[in-house]
Specification:
Shape: globular
Strand order of the largest sheet: 3-11-8-7-6-4-5
Strand content: 5-15%
InterPro entries: AB_hydrolase_fold (IPR029058)
Structural class: alpha/beta
Number of helices: 18
CATH superfamily of the largest domain: Alpha/Beta hydrolase fold, catalytic domain
CATH topology of the largest domain: Rossmann fold
Protein name: Alpha/beta-Hydrolases superfamily protein
Organism: Buddleja alternifolia
Largest sheet: 7 strands, parallel
Order of helices and strands: HHHEEHHHEHEHEHEHHEHHHHHEEEHEEH
Amino acid sequence: MDARNSESGESSTPIVPNGAAMRDDRPGIPQLFTAVPTFNDAASYLAETTSIFTRCFPGILSVLITISEVMVLSYVKLSVIHQVLQGPLTRDSDGLEMLAFLPREAGASAADMNLSSSAINQFNAPAVPGEITRGVAGESSQNSNVLVQSNNTNRNGISIFQGLFEKVRRTVRGSADDIGWLQQSADMPPVEDGTERFTEILDDIRHGLHSLPNTMVYLLVPGLFSNHGPLYFVNTKTSFLKMGLTCHIAKIHSEASVEKNAKEIKDYIEEIYWGSKKRVLLLGHSKGGVDAAASLSMYWDELKDKVAGLALTQSPYGGSPIASDILREGQLGDYVNIRKLMEIIICKVIKGDMQALEDLTYEKRKDFLTKYHLPRELPVVSFHTEASISPAVLATLSRVAHAELPVFAPLSDGQPTTLPVMIPLGAAMAACAQLLQIRYGEKSDGLVTCRDAEVPGSIVVRPKRKLDHAWMVYSSLNDDPSEANASQVCEALLTLLVEVGQRKKHEFARKYE
C-alpha cells in the first residue's frame, strides 16, 4: 500500500484506516482498541470497591496496589499504541514509511486522548519518526497544531490517572500510616513501662491493702455517649466512697467537642478545689481522658496548684482509626452511609456535636497536639488493653442501665422492682477488634489501638489480660470472680499515679536545689 506525495496530485491513502476497515487489515488490533476504554471503566470500579474488598480479604492489600499500578501503566501504553496505529502511514522520498497524528473525532473522551512525547518516552512506547508527514505547508501546520493541543490534553489525562491512583491508595491504606504516629514523632518524650509495679499494687488491693490517700479528691471523667449510660463509672465511685474517699463523676456533655469539655473540666476542678482545699486526681476513660488531658494542657497555669495527676484509660490520645475511617473521604463512611448515620445519632437523637467524633480523628489530634502539650511536671499514667476475639465473647452482656417496673401490691412489698438493661457490648467490641486486626494488623480494645493509647512521657500499663473498651466502666454478667474488677483496676491506677507524683516531686526538688 503506497501513499503518494500530495504535490504530485495523486491521492494519499492511509496504511492503517480507521473504523471497520482496521478489523480487516489488522486482525489482532480491534480487541486491543476495545480494551482501552475498558481499562478506564475498570480503574473507576476499582476505586469504588477497594474498601469493601479490603474489609473482607485483608491479604489482597498489596495485590490491589500492584494491580492499580499495572492498570494505569497498561492504559497509558495502550493509549500510545492506539495513537500511533491510528495515524496515516506515508512514504517519503527515500521510501521510508512515516506515521502522522490525526485529530480526534468529535465526541472522543478525554481518556482516549493522545499522550505527550514525554509520556511516550517515560513508558518506553515506540517513538514516532518525523512526527508529521512530508506534505504541503498547510498540512504540516495543521498537524503541528494538533500535536500541541494533544499534548495539553494528555497532561490533563495523566493528572486524572494520578488522582485516581492516589484515591485508590488512600482507600486501601486507610489509617495505616497514622496509627502509632506518636511513637514515630521525634518531638515526643519516651514512655516508661509501669506494668510490673501496677500488677504488684493490684495484688495488694485484692488482698485488702488499700493505700489511696484521703487528702485528695478523685474525679472520674467519662467518655463518649456516657450521658446515655446511667451506670457509667457508678461501680467505681461506689467502691471509692465505701473506702471513705471523696469521689465525683464529672457531669459533662460527653458528646461535645474536646475544647468545650476542656473548659467545663477546668471549671469543675476549680470548684472542687475551692470547696475542699484538696488537690484533684483525674482518671479519664476513652474520650474522657482526651478531654481531661486537653483541659490540663490548655489551662495548666491556672490548674497546676490544684491538680495532682492524670490517668488515662483506653483513651485515643493519638487518635482513633474507627473515627478516622468513618469520617475520612473514600473510606467506610462513603460506602455504607455510616457517616450519615452517625450524624443523625449524634446531632439529632442525642443532641450532641459531630465535632466530638471529629476531634478523635488523627488529623484533629495531630493539630491539637501541635498546639498544646501536657506539661512535663504533670504525673501521667496511661493504660490500654487488648480485646478478646474468641467466640466466647459473643455471649458477653454488659449492664449499662436498669429499668424500674411498676409496683404491684400483690407482688411486691412496696419497693419498685428493677431489671438490668443488658447490651452485648463485648460482642461489638470483639467485632471491631477483629476488623482492626485484619485490616491494620493492630491490637486494640475494639475502638482504640494500643499504640494510640500510650501518652508520650507517661508511665504505661500494658496488662496481659484480655479486656475490651467497655469493661472499664460497665460490669458484665460473666465477670471472673478470681480476677480483679474494674473498680480495683481504677484504684490500682490511681495508686500508681500517686507514687509517680511523689517521685516526680522529689526529682524536681533535687533539680532546683
